[in-house]
Amino acid sequence: MCPEGMMKCDPEAPSSQGSVESAIRCRDVCRSFGKLKVLSSLNLTVPQGRIYGLLGPSGCGKTTLLKCIVGMLKISRGHITVLGKPPAFPGHEVPGKMVGFMPQDLALYDEFTISDTLWFFGRIHGLSSKDTEARIDFLIDFLNLPQRTRLVRNLSGGQRRRVSLGAALLQKPQLLILDEPTVGVDPVLRAKIWQHLVEIVKGGQVSVIITTHYIEEARQANVVGLMRNGRLLAEAPPDTVMKQHSTATLECAFLQLCESSDQTLSKNGSTPDGREKEGSQSSESCRDESQPILSLGSELDTEEPKFTVDWKVRARHMIPKWRNIAALMIKTMVRMKRMPGFLCFQFLLPAIQISLMCLCIGGDPLGIQVAVVNNETSQSSLSRSLLSFLDNTSVHQVALSHSEAFAGIRDGEYWGVLGFGKNFSSYLMKRMVQTRVSLEVAEGGSVHVWQDFTNRQIALMLQNKLQEAFQAFVKNKLGSRSYLVSLPIKFEEPIYGSNSTDFTTFVTPGAILSITFYLAVGLTALSFVLERKEGLLDRCWVAGVSSMETMLAHLLSQLFVISVQIILLLLFTLLVFKIPNEGSLFLVILLIVLQGVTGISFGLVISAAIDDEQSANQAALGIFYPNLIVSGILWPVECIPYPLRYISLALPQTYASEALRCIMYRGWGLSHMMVWRGFVVTLGWNTFFLILATVILKLRT
Ligand SMILES: Nc1ncnc2c1ncn2[C@@H]1O[C@H](COP(=O)(O)OP(=O)(O)OP(=O)(O)O)[C@@H](O)[C@H]1O
């Protein structure tokens, strides 16, 4: 029978497993982290409608056991049933609505108000607006919470703890799991929390398991389990434990139990701290020690119950729930709303980055100092005329003597020296009108240039400016006959692009993709790593949100951010900096969005594999520069030597940048291999990253 006002009972729950009287049954449970065995053949029974105080010193494995009970961690041996079925069993609402979980770290969103927090969990549990409002009113009164509009970050430690408890109680769960709710709490509040718990279980419909290492406070529990080194030393009502050991306090009884346990362990040859390394104990001895010295009943039915599941239920269980995705997306939007400055920064950052790139990279250097040694004195000389065609904004001419000019270039004051012989004008005229001239005339009629080539860009710019000046000079002097002194190579109008195409034009498509990709990587990795560190991901998971739903919700919210970023990015690129786009704007946007999604997927891989934000940042930064350099974004991929070129071509942005250049500058569509290849590679990486993130998450459970 379902208790009134509680969750609906699952009609598919097996009736023969004897779980009616026990809310939780753990039998022969083992769990290790690497070689450290944290839970050793542990047996525990939480009776229905009772408070179970799980006691034990720090590090004895209480949190690990609770995580196993809610299905957050898999057990390596034994079996657990929670409210009739194993945790995370398809179709079972543990994790989910049946269980209220208050983790040890408070796991609350700082930017939320009390009301936002409770609404968030209400949405996840599928409560109607009316029910949620009613529960919020009740909990604010019941837990003596401050005004519902107060931000969590402005609450005191005790108030936060009560909000966290409220979030666990919100949906009237059948099972309440509280991990050290009283740690760091003043005695008055501690007494209040216990008083609340006693009230909650009064009807016999709600069961509570609460961990604490303040042993004495658990005298208010109906049953206590005394845990040490991953084992349960005793499980009985507090009075029975004390009576059995003839002690006045639970603490003394616990000490006696520890001593007896140590004696048993030393007989069996275990390590002094009582923990065993994985595989160091035979299953026989493991089973012996698993029997608590004092237990609720003599019959510990260790036989594993069998559960079957209909494929339809399994399929329904696998399909992401829109309700959870919507709740998570609303959560992200509320958080964004509470951080408008950060949101604007997020939106504008790509546009700022691309603007800086267009302003600072690829343009002509300005005001380059060049020394001019002119041995012609006449004002009407051709040397002066030629110099007048030199672009004054880029090249600043300084007239000097031969010795001063060379001393200056050696001292780094000038980037070049232009030398004109004293007969430059007459020799140049001869060169231009006569077909056969002597070497002396050719030399004397040339501008001699000495350059500082330590800065290639400036040196090439100077050469380019001199050639442009000479062409303008010749055109001015010879008019239609200027072709006589031109090179016998004629550059016609380019098929694609224009003669004035600069380096900025080459870099921009790759830079757009790289900026979008890395911002998505950074934001995703940081948000997930921080949420996991603060216990928020775990808390949502216990509330019934699957990893897949978390990922999808993040993807959809991030897509909104990426869309705004891309609109601003393209507005600046195309309209302000006039980077040409000859192709389909739709394809341009699609490719950038897909690269953003690939960035999100890569961010998920980082956050799945790495636990702290510093290492996640280092991983993202460590990959940023090599990828930027090797992807052919800054310099043509054709310059990369083999076999590094193969690596370059396999990276997510190499073919994608090429595809974007082809769309924007050649106007190509998906029928061209160089375009569709960019899309295929992007989608391939996307899929690979998503699979990798899922596998890592699964392996780490
Ligand atoms: N993810 C993990 N990886 C490796 N070791 C872990 C991990 N989680 C817990 N442990 C180890 O397992 C042991 C039990 O930890 P657990 O958090 O369950 O203890 P606890 O009894 O809840 O302690 P406390 O009362 O201080 O919270 C500790 O030695 C801890 O270092």
UniProtKB/TrEMBL annotation:
Gene source species: Anguilla anguilla
Family annotation (Pfam families): ABC2_membrane_3 (PF12698), ABC_tran (PF00005)
Cellular location(s): Membrane
GO molecular function: ABC-type transporter activity; ATP binding; ATP hydrolysis activity
Keyword match Nucleotide-binding: yes
Domain ABC transporter: 24-254
Membrane topology: Multi-pass membrane protein
Lineage of the organism: Eukaryota, Metazoa, Chordata, Craniata, Vertebrata
Region ranges (Disordered): 264-297
Protein name: ABC transporter domain-containing protein
Coiled coil, from the record: none
PANTHER family listed in its UniProt record: ABC TRANSPORTER G FAMILY MEMBER 20 ISOFORM X1, ATP-BINDING CASSETTE, SUB-FAMILY H, MEMBER 1
Annotated TM spans: 506-530, 551-577, 583-607, 619-637, 674-697
